[in-house]
Amino acid sequence: MRRSAVFQFRSGASFFHRLDPLSKFAWLVGISLLAFGAYIAWVQIVITGIVLFTALVLARLSPVEIWRGTWLFVIACTSFLVIQTLTLPGTHVAFRIAGHPIYAESFDYALASALRIYTIILSSLVFVRTTDPRELAIALVTQMKVPYRIAYAFFIALRIIPTIEDEIKTIGAAQAVRGVARQGGIAGRIREMKRYSMPLLVGSLRKASMMVMSMEARAFGAFPKRTFVEPPRMTASGVVVRTVTIAAVVAWYAALATGLVHTMYVLAPA
Amino acid sequence: MVDVATPATVSQSVSRVVVDLQSISYTYEGEGQPVLNDISFQVDDGEFVLILGPSGCGKSTLLQLFNGTIPHTLKGALAGEASICGHALTTTKVATFATDVGMVFQDPDAQIICTRVRDEVCFGLENLCRPAAEIMEQQVEALRLVGLDGFGDRSVFDLSGGQKQRVSIAAVLAVRPRLLVLDEPTANLDPAGMADVFVLLHALHKAGTTIVMVEHRVDELADRVSRVIMMDRGRMTFDGPPREAFSQPRAARSEEGDVVPVSAWFPQAAEFALALGTACGVPIQAKDMPLNVAEAVTLGERFIGVAAVMPSVPAASMSSPETTPLLRVQHLSFGYDRVEPILDDVNFDLGRGRLVAICGRNGSGKTTLARLVMGINDAPRKTIFLNGKDLSALGPKEISAEVGYVFQNPDHQFVTDRVWDEVAYGLTVRGYADDAIRMRVDEVLGIVDLARYAERSPFSLSLGERRRLSVATMLVLEPRLLILDEPTIGQDHERAQLLMGLMVRLRERYNTTVLMITHDVRLVAEWADRVLVLSRGRLLFDGTPENMFADEALLAAGGLLTPPVFDISRRIAAALPAGPVRPTLSVPALVDAIVKSRKVAA
C-alpha cells in the first residue's frame, strides 16, 4: 500500500467536486490573475483567505491534505518573506530586530509576494484534487469544441503524471538500496537524473505503449466523433462562479488602470 | 446525454472459426530472428484455449495478432495468412476488431485509462459511438457479470488488484466481444484475486464466450480449459486437449537457449500422477491424467497398497535458539496517517540462514514492512533491530551493508552501463580495494552464470538474466538478510525455480536469511521454512508452511489457497486414516508414501 499522490484527483461530493470543470478552470485562472495583479499585502491576504475558504469548505479538503500538498511551498514562501523583509529597503521603520530596522514597505511587499506564490499553489491543488482530468477533457470537447483526440491527449498526460511520480520514487528507492546517495547541487542533480533516465524511459515507454494498445484495442480514434455519456454541464452554480470571477478580475484591473486603488508598491523600491 | 455520433455499423462474422492462422511468421522491426515461426492453428466458437511456454517464446506476441496490433501498431515482417472473426488481419484496422475481440493485459494499472470505474467500462462503447442509453445499460450488465455491481462510482485508485483486473475485463465485455484474449491477467494478483478471475472466466466460457489466454498459473485452470497450445522459441510444440498436454514430461528452451524441463507449468495434480506412474512403473494413460485435486485423489487411492504402513513423521524443525536474532521487529506500527495504519503492532524475530516467506492479500502491508526493514521508509524508533541495533539510528550505508533488496523490476536498480561495473558498483562505493573487487565480482558473475555477458549493457540482457544480475548486485555484498520482492512475477516457474535454487546456494554459502514477498503458494510450499501472513497490517500467522496451509480460516483471511499436493494428500489421509499418507507439501513425499505401501503389500 502506498501513499496516494497529493496532486491527483480524488472523487468527492463537495460543492467544488460537483462544479463543472470549465467553471473551476475559470476560477483558477481568475484567482491567478488577481494574485498577479495585487501587490498590496491586504489584498493578497483577502485572496488567500478566499482560496483557503474554498479549499476547506467548498472543496472539503482536510487541513492535513492541504498541508501535505503545500508544506514545501509554505517553507519556501516563509523563507522568501523573511529574506525580502530583511533585505528590501523602505522608508517607514515598523520595528527593529537586534537593532536592524524592519520597514513597513518591505514587509508589506514581501508578504504580498509570499502569499501570491502560496495562493497560486493552493488554488492549483484545489483544482487538481477536485477535477477529474477526464471530465475536463470532455468539457473541452463538448463545451469548447476541441477535437476529442487532442483533449484526450491532454487527459492522458494528466492521468500518467501520478504513474511517473510513482516510478521515480521506486527508482530512487531501488538505487538508494544500491548505496547511491542523494546528491545535492545542480551537478549532482544532473548526475542523478542521468542515472534515473534509462530505467524511467524504459518503464514509461512500456507503460505508455500499453496504454496506447489498450485504447486502440477499444476503438479509440476509430471515428471522427464519439459518444460522451453524462458529459459535465455548466450548472447555475457554475454560472455564478464564472460571473463572480470575471467580475472580480475586470473590476480589479479596471481599478488598477484608473488609479482607484493604492498602487504605490506596484513597482518595488529599487 | 449529448454528442451521440452516428452509431457504428457492427457486423460480427457468423463463421464458426474465430481464429484462423496459416503459416504465420513474424519478425519485430529491427530484429534478425523471427519471434513467431510457422504458426498454424484454428480456434472455433466456444473454445477456451490456454497457451503455455517459457518466457520469451512468443506467446504475448502471438496474442497481439488477434486484434491487429501486429501488424498495424507494431510494425515488422509478417508472413502467412491470418483471419480473426472473419476479418483478414492485414487489411483490417485495429479499431474494427474492437467489436469482435476484447484484449486484457497483464498489468491493470497500465491498461485502465479512466479514473472512475463506470467511465472505464463505458470507454470502448463511447469510442464506437453507441447511443448513451445503450452504453449505460451495457456497462451495468458488464459490471454485474464480473461481480462488481454498484462499483460504478468508485475510483479505480481505491480498488484492489483483483478488482482492477475485473474492471479491465468488464471494460472489454461491455462491447460483448466474440473473442476474449487475456495475457497473464492474474500475474499481479494475490491467490484469492486470481481465483476470482478464473471463476469469472469459467462462467464466461460456459456462457459461450471464446477465450484465448496466456497464463503461467495452471493449477486452477487445467480442468477449465478445452485445449492447450504449447510454444517453444516461436514454434508450436503441442496442440490438443489438456489431459493429453499434461500426460508426458516435456522440455523447452529458455530465453537464453538452455533446455529446461517444463513440469512446473503442469498442474500439480498431473505432476503427481506422472511421478506416481513412473515410481510404480505403471504409465498413466492420457485419458486418466488428473487435472484437479478430486481426480488426483481418486488416482492416488487406486495406487495405495493394502498393507498398513507407519506414516513418516515430518522431521522437527532444526531451529536453534539464538541470543541475538538477525532481525527483531517489535510493536511496529506504521502509516502515512493515523486513521489508516498500514502496519499495526507487528512482532517477530528472524534468525540466520532461514528462508522466510511473507504472504497476504494485495495491500496487506507486505511491501511496506520490507521497505521499512530496508530503510527505504523511516522506521519508528526502537521497533526494528538489526543485529541488536536500532534500525532508525543506522544510516543507508550501514543498513545496505547487512540487508539487500531485490526489486520486482530489475531495471529500476541498474546504475551503470556495463554488467561487470554493475556488480562492482556496491563494492566501489564502499571503498573496497581494486583487487578485492575484481575477485569478488568475477566469483559472483560465475555463481549467477553471467560471466560471459560481463561487457554488455544490463539493459540488453533478457528478463531472466536481468533478474539474476539484480540478485548479483546484492549477492556481491554478502548481505546477512536478502529481501526478494515477488520473485515469480513476470517469470515462468522454471525461471523462478532457478532463482530460488540460487537463494539456497546463497544461504548455504553465506548463511544469509532470505525474506521473500510472494503470492505463489507453490513456491512457499516448496522453498520456505517459515511463513509470515499479514492481513490489513496485522501479523496473523508466524509458523511453518504446513501449519499455515492446514488453517482454513487463516487462508481465507490472508487471501491464500492451498497447493494442490497438500489438498490431495490431506483428502487421501482423511479417506484412509490408517493409510500411509499424511498431509504433505511435497509431491515426492506423497509419491514415496504411496509407493512404500505397495512394496509392503507385495
UniProtKB/TrEMBL annotation, chain A:
CDD domains membership: EcfT
One family name in Pfam for this protein: CbiQ
InterPro entries (UniProt xref): ABC/ECF_trnsptr_transmembrane
GO terms for cellular component: plasma membrane
PANTHER family per the UniProt record, alphabetical: PROTEIN ABCI12, CHLOROPLASTIC
Similarity comment text for this entry: Belongs to the CbiQ family.
Name of protein: Energy-coupling factor transporter transmembrane protein EcfT
Species name: Lichenifustis flavocetrariae
